[in-house]
Specification:
Order of helices and strands: HHEHEEHHHEEHEEHEHEHHEHHHHH
Bound molecules: ligand LQLD3KLK, NADPH dihydro-nicotinamide-adenine-dinucleotide phosphate
Low-confidence stretches: none
Distance between the termini: 72 Å
Oligomer: single chain
Protein name: Fatty acyl-CoA reductase
Radius of gyration: 28 Å
Membrane topology: Single-pass membrane protein
Shape: elongated
GO biological process, one term: wax biosynthetic process
Domain Fatty acyl-CoA reductase C-terminal: 294-385
Organism: Muntiacus muntjak
Number of helices: 16
Number of strands: 10
Strand content: 5-15%
Mean pLDDT: 95
């Protein structure tokens, strides 16, 4: 990841100093010396730290995404040299709306009241009231990110603030090289599950917009926002949508198809089954495919592991995957429209050279190429698989295909045999097929004898 920057700037280490901090602690548990240095020397703050788990307990999510933001704003107000405070939110902070503008929307309950209540409510009560508090938000993550924005608006004081709202972050597009990715958030985890053959069906709407945004595009836009906010000092807090849907849309159908097509060329090693996922769109088919394609193979495989004296693990893994899928479903069955006036305005404010260096013009992205590089990046940087292993991986998939055919043939014969034993209709069909084949073979043999 950092090879290129080390080449261009060999003394890069001298320019960076990491400071230990914990958002769960008062003053973030930053040491006195570090705090002093931060207070007196900081020019720009990029506030990215957060919990991004969808299933986080509300108390923890509020602490990290709301209370910590409030504390950081307080700290920022004591920094005389501060030029800009850039808060990273998410495009889904208002995902209860269909059309989202670059404005901060009010929350039904004031963030301050939520912060206060977290101090005296116990966990059991918080669990009980969480669904009522989050209302039409899908999880505690989007809910607390929305609260975080309101805190920024209400407690920003005289600070020069901007908010960046990225959609679903994916692997890098160009910088420092295509396809770099280091976590399993968003689509990356599902790409692994599909490529390894665990994921066979996803409840998704193929025509819904897949609002992915490459990580380097988000970084470039965020840096440009830092510059604009510090230099132009806009009168109000500007919100910037870092999204792809309205400028260069791609849908989940196209994305899924390209992911699968890439597995043909670049398969993952030691797959459980051949990658062959599909989208389902209703409850009944989702339950059916979950039972047939996810749970049943896991149970059979665990039975095989037990028989061979090993510890069963597939059912547990599959349950985890199905839980993850159920959490992501909300986002892959809907489309949103994000306006991008501020982002487009910012692009026009950059010089041609800066537009090239800090490129965030998503219209230039070729989705097919991007997705191919993404899958390749998942293989290299997440799974740490070597490209030299591709021929063996292909061989393995061929073996899995043969096992699949053999298994299906055996299953068909068993079911058929049982049917014949129990049903007169099935017996009649069977005799018809056998006599038809016999007649066909006799005719074929007779006609070839005549020719000779
Ligand atoms: C017509 C054509 C048909 C073709 C059809 C083809 C169909 C094919 C499909 C093919 C492939 C799919 C491609 C497209 C599919 C679409 C999917 C895209 C989904 C994207 C939706 C994202 C919406 C995001 C909206 C909001 C945007 C934001 O603001 S982002 C913040 C993003 N946050 C997340 O993404 C976090 C979500 N995750 C969680 O909340 C939790 O992980 C979980 C609740 C989902 C699961 O929790 P669980 O406790 O079960 O597991 P966990 O402990 O989290 O982890 C399990 C193991 O993984 C390790 N781990 C965890 N995190 C990381 C990490 N960041 N990096 C590395 N490793 C990680 C963790 O340590 C665990 O390991 P072990 O301890 O060893 O078990
Ligand atoms: N991923 C996505 O698709 C999107 C992400 N975002 C936003 O981007 C930002 C980064 O997210 P992403 O990179 O995906 O998530 P990660 O979980 O990878 O990053 C979260 C960061 O927060 C830090 N952090 C978490 N808990 C604490 C804590 N208690 N004290 C100090 N630091 C902490 C982590 O530090 P450490 O590494 O040391 O654990 C990490 O650097 C978040 O604000 C998120 O809301 C917005 C839209 C989309």
């Amino acid at each position: 990841m950092f090879e290129k920057v080390k080449e261009v700037c060999p003394n890069v280490h001298e320019k960076i100093r990491a400071i230990s901090a914990d958002l769960n602690q008062n003053d973030f548990a930053i040491s006195k010396e570090d705090l002093q240095e931060l207070l007196s020397n900081t020019n720009v703050i990029f506030h990215c730290a957060a919990t991004v788990r969808f299933d986080d307990h509300l108390r923890h999510a509020v602490q990290l995404n709301v209370t910590a933001t409030q504390q950081l704003l307080l700290m920022a107000s004591q920094m005389p040299k501060l030029e800009a405070f850039i808060h990273i939110s998410t495009a889904y902070s208002n995902c209860n709306l269909k059309h989202i503008d670059e404005v901060i929307y009010p929350c039904p309950v004031e963030p301050k009241k939520i912060i206060d209540s977290m101090e005296w409510l116990d966990d059991a009560i918080i669990d009980e009231i969480t669904p009522k508090l989050i209302g039409d938000q899908p999880n505690t993550y989007t809910y607390t990110k929305a609260l975080g924005e309101v805190v920024v608006q209400q407690e920003g004081g005289d600070l020069n603030i901007a908010i960046v709202r990225p959609s679903i972050m994916g692997a890098t597009w160009q910088e420092p090289f295509p396809g770099w990715v280091d976590n399993i958030n968003g689509p990356s985890g599902l790409i692994i599950a599909a490529g390894k053959g665990f994921l066979r069906s996803v409840r998704a709407t193929p025509m819904a917009v897949a609002d992915l945004i490459p990580a380097d595009t988000v970084v470039n836009l965020t840096l440009a926002v830092g510059w604009y906010t510090a230099v132009h000092r806009p009168k109000s807090t500007l919100v910037y949508h870092c999204t792809s849907g309205n400028l260069n849309p791609c849908n989940w159908g196209k994305m899924g198809f390209q992911v699968l097509a890439t597995f043909e060329k670049i398969p993952f090693e030691r797959a459980f089954r051949r990658p062959n996922a599909d989208f389902t769109t209703n409850n009944i088919s989702t339950h059916y495919w979950n039972a047939v394609s996810h749970r049943a193979p896991a149970i059979i495989y665990d039975f095989y592991l037990r028989l061979t004296g090993r510890k069963p693990r597939m059912t547990k893994l599959m349950n985890r995957l199905l839980r993850t899928l159920s959490m992501l479903e909300y986002f892959i069955n809907r489309s949103w429209e994000w306006s991008t006036h501020n982002t487009e305005m910012l692009m026009s404010e950059l010089s041609p050279e800066d537009q090239r260096v800090f490129n965030f013009d998503i219209r230039q992205l070729n989705w097919l190429e991007y997705i191919e590089n993404y899958v390749l990046g998942v293989k290299k940087y997440l799974l740490k698989e070597d490209m030299a292993g591709i021929p063996e991986a292909k061989q393995h998939l061929k073996r899995l295909r043969n096992i699949h055919y053999l298994f299906n043939t055996a299953l068909f014969l068993i079911v058929w045999r049982l049917l014949i034993a129990r049903s007169q209709v099935a017996r009649n069909v069977w005799f018809f097929i056998v006599s038809f084949c016999y007649k066909f073979l006799s005719y074929f043999r007779a006609s070839s004898t005549l020719k000779v």
